Amino acid sequence: MSTRRNKFEIWSEVMESCLRTPRTQTWLLREIRLKTLVVKETLQFLLNRHLIEEVNDADGIKYQTTEKGEKALIKYYNLINDFFEPD
Amino acid sequence: MKNIENENEDLVQSQKSLLAKLYKINRAFNIHFQSLGFFLMAALVYSFYLFSLFMTGQITPTLAQRYGVFGIVINIIQVVVLLIMFIYFIYQNVVYYSFIRKGNRSIRKIKESHSNIYSFEYKLHHGIVSYVNNVTTFFKRYSKEKKNMRDLVTIFLFANFLFGLYIIIIIFSLVEIEETAMVNSPFMAIFFLMTVISWLVSFGSSFKIRKNFIIWEKIIPKLDSWAQDLEDLPSNTSKSSEILEDEQKKNHN
User: Fold this and answer.
1) In three state form, how does the secondary structure of chain A look?
2) Going from the N-terminus, what domains does chain A have, and what CATH number goes with each?
3) pTM for the complete prediction?
C-alpha cells in the first residue's frame, strides 16, 4: 500500500483549514505540505463542487469553506464518531 | 441567520464529540507506550545485572553444572530468546512511537488552533483531520495485503504476555541467588513491583489498542466512500479553471 495521501485526506484537510478562516494558496502549500499542482487541482475540485469559495482580500485571493463544505465536514466527523462508543 | 447558527452548533458539536474520543485514544496509546517502554528498560537493567553477576563470578549457570553440554545448550537458548525479545520489544516501541509522535503533534496543533482568535470566536478546532490523516498514514505504512494491523497488534499482544512472563521468571531466578545481597534490597523489590505493574498495564492496554485498530480499519474504507460522495457531487467545471491555467503557462514557458 502506498503512503501517498488519499483524496479524502487532502480534501478534508483543505476544507478544515479553510473553515471560517480564509486561507491563501501559499498558506495551504506551506501548512498542508503538498506540491503546487496538487494544491491547485484540489482547490479547483473543491471550487467546482462549491465546497469552498474564493474570497477577495487585500492580501489577494483566499479560499474559505462554504456551508456545503461544512456539511461535508460534519458528515466526515460524524462518520468517525459513530464508530466509537459514546462518551 | 438561525440556519447558520444551527450549522455552527452542529459543527462545533461534532468536532467536540470527535475530539473527546481522539484525546481518549491518544491517552490509551500514551499509557501503552510508556508502560511498554518502562518494561523494556527494566528488562534491560535486569539482563545487564544478571550478566554482570555472571561475569564477576558471583553466579554460575546452574544448568551447565547439573546437566553438562545439555545445560549449556539450554543456557544459550535462554540468551537467544532474550535477545529476540529485546528486538521485538524495540520494534514494537518504534511502531507505537511513530503513531504517538504524530498523534501528539496533531493534538498540540488542535490545542494551538483553538487559541487562535478566529477559531476561538467560532469555538472551532483545526487539526482534527490531521490526526485522522496520521492514523491512515500509519495504517498504510504498516498494513500489508496479507497481514493487516489487526494481526500485527494481536501478535504484539501475545508476545507481550509471553515475553513479560519470561522476564518475570528470570527476575525470580535472580532473587533465588542467595549470595547476591543486592537483589534482595528494598530498592530492587520496589523496582520489581514496578516492572510487574508496567507489564500488566502494557498487557491490559494492548486489548484497548487492538480494539481501536479494529475500529480504524473499518473507518478508513468509509472515508474513501465519503470522498467518492464528494466526487459524485455535481461539478461546475466552467468555473475557475484559471488556477490550473497558471501552472500550464509556467510549464509552457
Assistant:
1) CCCCCCHHHHHHHHHHHCCCCCEEHHHHHHHHCCCHHHHHHHHHHHHHCCCEEEEEECCEEEEEECHHHHHHHHHHHHHHHCCCCCC
2) 7-81 (1.10.10.10)
3) 0.78
